[in-house]
Fold:
Amino acid sequence: MPERHAPLLALEGIDLGHGDQVVLPRLSLTLRPGERVALLGPSGAGKSTLLAALRARLGDDVAWCPQHHGLVPGLAVYHNIYMGRLAEHSALANLWNLVRPLREPWREIAELCEQLGIAELMRRPVGRLSGGQRQRTAIGRALYQRRRLFLGDEPVASVDPHQALRLLSLIDAQHDTCVIALHQRELALSHFDRVWGLRDGRLVLDAPADELSLDDLDALYPDAETPVRSDQQETPATRPLPCYRGRV
Ligand SMILES: Nc1ncnc2c1ncn2[C@@H]1O[C@H](COP(=O)(O)OP(=O)(O)OP(=O)(O)O)[C@@H](O)[C@H]1O
Structure:
């Protein structure tokens, strides 16, 4: 990424957590405009905590796709996606839309659903969708917000690899910057510009994706490591955790 662009966000030694509980102490990182960042780390490493902090700081520029979707099971796919822009319409329009969908939002959301591969599900209650269909609905709601940045907490966790790529491409087409938590290491290297890796409350990886290997990403996950005996050669799975930083 060109260094000349002013960062969208720079954290310098900030404690992030929940209430009194610090999860990521003294965290420093920079997000630049135009960057696509993959956020990796084992369960409980603090990915959601970091995304929540980014969202709070970046405010209205952010399209947000949360981990547990936050969809309303009793409402149709159309209405759940419409909720992405609820605040832009009057209470009366929103009420009317519940009974009889408004023409323009219906057209826009139908187009979106077509791209997401859920066009035939627009009228179906979310409670009757598969996990992958729900995930696409949640992405649809975030896309419908039409923001500049996309923050996603495992938005492609429940879909197959082809669909994951397709969905990430849709996200890219509409947002110049994104930070997406995911567990698919190959995708992190092939699709993103930068990787942030969290482990043990630290950002231990902050490097361009094209400078990293799968072994580097494996080292983020405790299960990938086994103790090295003195008579053993060091292997990618046993070598010490890397700590790449794009800057000091
Ligand atoms: N609302 C909360 N209040 C207090 N502690 C929390 C809260 N949410 C998460 N935590 C704690 O913060 C730590 C990091 O959790 P977080 O959800 O950020 O991890 P994660 O990397 O997103 O995990 P996963 O991959 O399982 O979603 C965990 O120890 C978790 O128990």
